[in-house]
Amino acid sequence: NTKAQWSDGKPVTADDYQFTLDFMRSSHIVDHKHNNYYTEEISKIVIHAPDVISVVTTKRHTKNSLLLKTSISPTHKDFHKLDKNWVQNYNWKIEPTTGPYILSSFKYGQFIIFEKNKNWWAKDLKYRKNTFNFDRLNLKVIRDTDSIWQHFLSGKLTQHHLTLSDLWHNKGKGDVFDKGYIKKLWIYTDVPHGAQILFINKTRKPWDDINVRKAFAHALNFNKVNQDLLRSEYERVSAFYVGYDGYDNTYVKAREFDIAKATELMKQAGYRLGRDGYWQKNSQKIQAKILYISQYHENRLVLLREEAKKAGFDIVLNYQQHSAGYKQRNEKKFDITWGGFGVSRLPPPSYWAYFHSENAKPQTNNLTMTAEPKLDKLIDLYRNTYDEQQKQDLSHQILQFIHDDAAFIPGLKNPFLRVAYWRYMMLPDVPGLKTGPNILAYGWIDERAKKELEEYQKQGKSFGPSVTIDQTFRVKD
Predict the structure, then answer these.
(1) Are 151 and 158 a contacting pair, CB within 8 Å?
(2) N or C: which end of the chain has fewer CB within 10 A?
(3) Residue 410 is inside which H or E element, if any?
(4) Would you call 142 helix, strand, or coil by DSSP?
(5) Cα–Cα nearest to 55, from 64, 5, 63, 66
């Protein structure tokens, strides 16, 4: 688009796309993942005219894959000086953007403030008009989950997720909800799932033993978590990826809670139950130490821990605040970690980053430290083939291998998102997309509704409770 501009007023040029390639390949940015991607996947960028470029891939792709591989962003050529001091000089600089908001200020560990770009070049485009309506976004860092909730109830935060069952059914009650000062929204989604929830580090003992890994998977009672904590609203994820149609392996099923199978596998691995009821070998008790960084999931982990005792496993929970936990996870200093990664809507999904031996090292997404030549071969073939049927067949084999290897244990998925927000925030009639509600992109503030709310609060008057359940994108059985 010839009207495209950076937030500093300079035009976006074809050279900015060419610079993206130079930038992402540079060792100065200290980013192995992007260095690899822009070398292995992108061959070159050809400038045909000031507003016409070609993004050339290193191999042929299916149509959907091609859209993903070539969808790159510009990087402001005149802003960056790419040299050995780039990290030191640019890590905390605010980079110009082509988007609707400009990062105006921040204080490390406290807040980030975005101001709307009043001269945003795309504001009148067909699919951007009437979006991104807020003039200012103040994102606060509040480390304690209870404090976050209290900030929301007092009106200091305008929205709060309610996807977790305890928040929707239990905490999302009281005067502000009953009187309709705060609205509740439940919207069904239709998105792929996967790449979460438990990753076992295969370089740590005794987790290098496949029978121990399989036994531990059978010791986790996710069904009880769903029933007791989540009101059976969630569903068990069957494999590393689900929701990619022909790329899914429908024969792979997650290991169910089964004490007998866990017992048999642990005995095959040479373990016996000690007097305390836990598995041990050579007088050494096995402990399953789980690193996690989300307090919202703590009750699930506690229930899994109690149920695992029945199968002879002693789970030790290790909560770390996000920055410390993320660092520990990236350095692979854990036995087992709870968490995961976002997934793309379009197939084919990526396996290389998570399971290829080239990434079995710190500072990568290969959390299981998997380094299996047979799997490497499948992943390499998967990355390089153009034939979609062959690609899907390879995806089936890879998903089967990941399941059989038992270093990844899938958790639960929610086919919906839920959110609460103060009633002066307005949403369209269909309050979101298939990917879920995005209040920051599609909502707006109604000043009259805000004044009316303030009057009702002063007088203690009620609008009546407001609960919306939107089933526009619900997947029918």
Answers:
(1) no
(2) C
(3) strand 408-410
(4) coil
(5) 66
- Give the C-alpha separation, 426 to 464, whole Å: 17
Q: Tokens for 398, please give them.
A: 């890879």
Residue 471 has pLDDT above 80, yes or no: yes
Angle between helices 222-229 and 298-309 (to 10 degrees): 130
- Distances in Å between the alpha carbon of 422 and those of 134, 163, 434, 450? 14, 17, 23, 9
Q: What is the DSSP letter of 200?
A: E
Q: What is the pLDDT of residues 346-395, one digit of tens each?
A: 776 789 999 999 999 999 999 999 999 999 999 999 988 888 899 999 99
Could you give the CA distance from residue 250 to residue 128 in angstroms, rounded to a whole number? Answer: 38
**Which tens digits make up the pLDDT trace of 195-214?**
999 999 999 999 999 999 99
For tokens 């004044």, name the residue.
451
Tokens of 82: 């790419």
* Torsion angle of C-alpha atoms 309, 313, 314, 318, degrees rounded to 10: -110
- Cα-based distances in Å from 130 to 63, 102, 141, 436: 31, 18, 28, 18
What's the CA gap between 147 and 177, in Å, rounded? Answer: 18
- Helix 210-218 to helix 259-268 angle (10° resolution) is 170
CA–CA separation, 416 vs 421, rounded Å? 17
* Cβ atoms within 10 Å of 401's Cβ, excluding its own: 20
**Side-chain-facing half-sphere of 107: CA atoms under 13 Å:** 6
